[in-house]
Amino acid sequence: MSDPRKAEPLIQARNLTKHYEKGQTHALRGVNLAIKAGEFVAIRGPSGSGKSTLLNMIAALDRPDSGEIRVAGQDLTKLRDGASYRAHVVGFIFQLHNLIPTLTAFENVLVPMLELKIKRKASREKAETLLHQVGLNGKADNLPPELSGGERQRVAVARALANDPQIILADEPTGSLDTSNGEQVIELLRKINREHNVTLILVTHDKEVAGIADRVIQIRDGQIVSDK
Ligand SMILES: Nc1ncnc2c1ncn2[C@@H]1O[C@H](COP(=O)(O)OP(=O)(O)OP(=O)(O)O)[C@@H](O)[C@H]1O
Ligand SMILES: [Mg+2]
Fold first, then answer.
1. Strands 199-203 and 167-171
2. Whole-structure pTM over 0.70, yes or no?
3. Which pLDDT score, from 0 to 100, does residue 179 have?
4. Residue with the nearest Cα to atom 31 of ligand 1?
């Protein structure tokens, strides 16, 4: 740990709580968490335990009721423009319904760059490079329904990288895939994490996937019950 940038946590949550009126649910009950730049963290826990809620907080898609959350030096509870924060800091990969079905693989990868001030030519070149990186250079013009499940998730990985995020948030990215396709996607994310020092936070039910991570956090009933 000689890199001084690694000393400051990239993500710091203190006593986060979130309650949903509907269903009277306490989704998060006092979550404390510090994640350093470049870590690969797996999050596990039963259905409804608060995993996605926590990712949504880190993505500034939702706000906590109380507590603090700071990411990349920004206080997310005071953030004015969540969209701009997301556009610059995070890449998100979801379990399902990842891609815009009416856009080609190539166009899907271009989408996050529209928010940023990137020249058209540069963003097209970048989308091409990213699709190549995920092994899909031959499928750039395919629409999502013309891709396999594993290929679609790889497009989603390419799209999540398009804005050069510091953090990738992946909510069960292999949930809809068979073992071999799932492994490919995880290996790809792992590679990006290692080679580009991108912080990777991955929700998974899969024990083996969690085994690849540097650190596994277990959540139950909105609380972290284990972190190692
Ligand atoms: N928008 C919402 N309105 C009301 N309740 C919600 C909302 N979002 C989540 N919840 C509730 O908060 C709790 C935590 O949900 P969350 O989606 O974080 O669980 P999870 O751990 O991601 O589960 P899964 O593994 O099934 O995806 C659940 O009880 C859920 O029903
Ligand atoms: Mg979830």
1. parallel
2. yes
3. 82
4. 48
